[in-house]
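Hi F.,

I've been meaning to write this up properly since the lab meeting, where we talked about keeping a consistent format for the predictions we share between groups. The idea is simple: the sequence comes first, exactly as it goes in, then the structure tokens exactly as they come out, then a line or two of notes. No screenshots and no reformatting. I'm using this chain as the first example so we have something concrete to point to.
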Amino acid sequence: MGRGFLTGRIKRVEDLASDDFRRNVPRFQGESFAQNLKLVERVGEIASRKGVTTGQLVLAWLLAQGKEVVPIPGTTRRKHLEENNAALDIELTESDLSELASAMPPGAVIGMRQPEAMMRLSNL
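Output, unedited:
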């Protein structure tokens, strides 16, 4: 989810290993990182009030967008798979959905998803 950003587990660039590819991703650099972290923190506050993890809330929010939206979270640990699965049981009210839309409006994320060279390759 957002290359791990939306789980709420990444708080500082230093949380990433020195050889982690995300250090080269524009969304994880400089002012972009700082601004994007503020968005994640706002979503995290909502998750905390609902008693769920940020990742669970994000998945529940995606699931609430309609049947044509199918989130496919990647995971390498059974614990995270079980945590993700619990998102199916989260009920979001209209108020929750409105608050989430306000906290993370379209276009609010700053920085490209990939380094520029990778973006050029994907546009071939």
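Notes:
The first helix runs from residue 30 to 50.
The helical segments are 30-50, 54-63, 78-85, 94-103, 116-122.

If this format works for you, I'll send the rest the same way.

G.
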